[in-house]
Design brief:
76% of the residues lie in helices and 0% in strands. It is mainly alpha-helical and 329 residues long. The chain has a domain of 107 residues. It is globular, with a radius of gyration of 20 Å.
Length: 329
C-alpha cells in the first residue's frame, strides 16, 4: 500500500481547509465548483493544483496538465515570493520530481519559507526511501532540524510536525531500526491522543495507521486506528473522508486475509462512491484485491480493464497491458 504512504506524507501541508492529499475521494464536479468559488490568487492556485492532481491520479494527464499550466499564468500576473513558492510546491506535488523538489528547497531557504523547505525535504526523503537510505534519512533529519529551529507559530506547524515524525518513522522502518521507529511512533501516539485540536489528532491517527501498515509484523495494529477514523467520519457525516477510510480498511483487511471484513467495507465503499460520483485509482486496487481473493475471475478482471470500468476510469494502455502480462509470467 505504498500509495497510502505517499498520500499521508503529502496531505495537509500549506492548507488546513482543502482536499489536498484527498483528491481521489472528491468528484471532479465538486472540485470544479471549488475552483469557481476561489477568489484570491492563492485560493485559485490551490484549487487548480487539487484538480490537476485529481486528473493525473486517474491517468487523465492531458486534463491534469491543462489545470496545472493555469497556475503559472496566475503567478505571472500577481508575482510575489509567497505565491511563487506555493506554485513551486504544487509543481513538486504534481510532477513528483527531485529536480523540482531541490529547486523548491533552494528557493524556500533563500526566501525563508520554512513550510516549503520542510515540504521539499519530505518529498525528497520519500523519493529516495527505496533506493538510498542515507539520502532519505538526511532529508527527513534536515526537515526535523528546520522544524526544531522554527520559532514562529503557524496554523500548519503541528501538521508539519506530524508529517516529519511520520517520515522519520518510515525511513527507520526501512532501515530496520525498531528503536527509532518506536520513538517516532510514540510521539505520534501522544499527538493522536492528547492534541487539543481535533484535526491534528485525526491526522496523527491516519499516519499511525499508515506506518503500522508499512511496518512488517505490525500490520494488524493499523486496524484500530483506522476504525477510530471510520467511527469519527461516520458520526461527523463526512462521506468523502469516510470513502477514503472504507477504501483503506478494505485493502488492509484484504492484505491480512480477512476476506469477510474486506467485503463489508468494500460494499459500503462502492455504495458511497456511487452516491458521491467518485471513481479514482483506488478502485483499481480494490478491484485487484477482489481478483486476488477470488471474488471475481481473471477474465472479469481483464474485461473490466478493457471496458475502462464501465467508462469510469481510463487507465493508461501501457498499465493495462502490464496487468495482463503479469498473469502470464
Amino acid at each position: 500500500m505504498k500509495k497510502f504512504i505517499v498520500l499521508l506524507l503529502l496531505s495537509v501541508t500549506l492548507m488546513a481547509k482543502s482536499q489536498v492529499g484527498y483528491e481521489d475521494f472528491y468528484s471532479e464536479n465538486y472540485l470544479k465548483n471549488n475552483l469557481q468559488l476561489a477568489k484570491t490568487a492563492a485560493e485559485q492556485i490551490d484549487a487548480l493544483g487539487v484538480l490537476s492532481v485529481h486528473y493525473k491520479n486517474k491517468h487523465q494527464d492531458s486534463l491534469g496538465n491543462i489545470y496545472f499550466n493555469r497556475i503559472a499564468s496566475i503567478v505571472s500576473r500577481t508575482k510575489g515570493d509567497v505565491l511563487n513558492g506555493r506554485a513551486q510546491w504544487w509543481s513538486m506535488r504534481y510532477k513528483n520530481d527531485t529536480i523540482i523538489g531541490k529547486k523548491l528547497l533552494q528557493f524556500a531557504k533563500e526566501h525563508q519559507q520554512v513550510e516549503n523547505s520542510i515540504g521539499a525535504d519530505l518529498l525528497l526523503s520519500n523519493y529516495y526511501i527505496h533506493s538510498n537510505h542515507f539520502l532519505s534519512e538526511k532529508y527527513v533529519m534536515d526537515a526535523k532540524e528546520s522544524l526544531d529551529k522554527w520559532k514562529t507559530d503557524t496554523t500548519n506547524k503541528d501538521s508539519l510536525r506530524i508529517e516529519v515524525y511520520t517520515q522519520a518513522a518510515h525511513i527507520n522502518i526501512h532501515r530496520l531500526n525498531g528503536r527509532n521507529v518506536s520513538y517516532y511512533m510514540l510521539a505520534l501516539w501522544d499527538i493522536a491522543e492528547r492534541h487539543p485540536i481535533e484535526k491534528e489528532r485525526l491526522f496523527a491517527m491516519l499516519c499511525l495507521a499508515g506506518m503500522y501498515d508499512e511496518w512488517e509484523g505490525h500490520n494488524q495494529e493499523a486496524i484500530p486506528w483506522m476504525e477510530k477514523l471510520y467511527d469519527h467520519y461516520r458520526k461527523a457525516n463526512q462521506p468523502n473522508r469516510l470513502l477514503m477510510i472504507d477504501s483503506y480498511l478494505s485493502m488492509m483487511h484484504a492484505s491480512l486475509g480477512n476476506k469477510d471484513k474486506m467485503v463489508i467495507y468494500l460494499k459500503e465503499q462502492e455504495k458511497l462512491a456511487d452516491s458521491l460520483e467518485v471513481f479514482g485509482f483506488d478502485n483499481f486496487w480494490l478491484f485487484n484485491w477482489k481478483k486476488n481473493l477470488g471474488l471475481i475471475s481473471y477474465s472479469q478482471f481483464i474485461q473490466t480493464l478493457d471496458n475502462h470500468f464501465d467508462n469510469r476510469l481510463f487507465l493508461h494502455q501501457g498499465f493495462i497491458d502490464f496487468q495482463k502480462a503479469q498473469f502470464h509470467l
